[in-house]
Design a protein that fits this description.
Order of helices and strands: HHHHEEH
Low-confidence stretches: none
Mean pLDDT: 92
Number of helices: 5
Largest sheet: 2 strands, antiparallel
Radius of gyration: 15 Å
CATH class of the domain at 31-105: Mainly Alpha
Shape: globular
Distance between the termini: 46 Å
CATH superfamily of the domain at 31-105: Winged helix-like DNA-binding domain superfamily/Winged helix DNA-binding domain
Length: 112
């Protein structure tokens, strides 16, 4: 997909397409992280993935899956969509951010 973020190609926030900026551009697209997160434990068929993602539209899910497949983060086989080894590495990289977010939540004052 030529309009999808790729390292080495200009992306939002970077005219050089630095790998981190390309990754942040890809992951910053609406629903992308949710799709990755829902695939963290199991392969899922399209409809089950759509259900787990709060019934996002099928066109958006198709677009996100195409981008993630093109980025070698997700693949498809007879069992459904699943994370590639690169996608699993991404989950490992996101876990510290999840921990930070939980600490952040605890540190915020209660809303009245």
């Amino acid at each position: 997909m030529p309009d999808q973020p790729r390292p080495g190609v200009p992306v939002r926030g970077s005219t050089t397409g630095r790998p981190l900026m390309a990754a942040l551009d890809l992951l910053g697209q609406r629903w992308t992280l949710r799709v990755i997160w829902e695939l963290r434990t199991d392969a899922l068929g399209f409809r089950e993935l759509q259900r787990r993602c709060g019934q996002m539209s099928s066109s958006v899910l198709s677009t996100r899956l195409a981008a993630l497949t093109g980025a070698a983060i997700v693949s498809l086989d007879d069992d459904g969509y699943y994370l590639t080894p690169l996608g699993k590495d991404l989950i490992t990289a996101l876990r510290p951010l999840q921990s930070w977010a939980e600490d952040w939540e605890k540190s915020l004052p209660e809303e009245a």
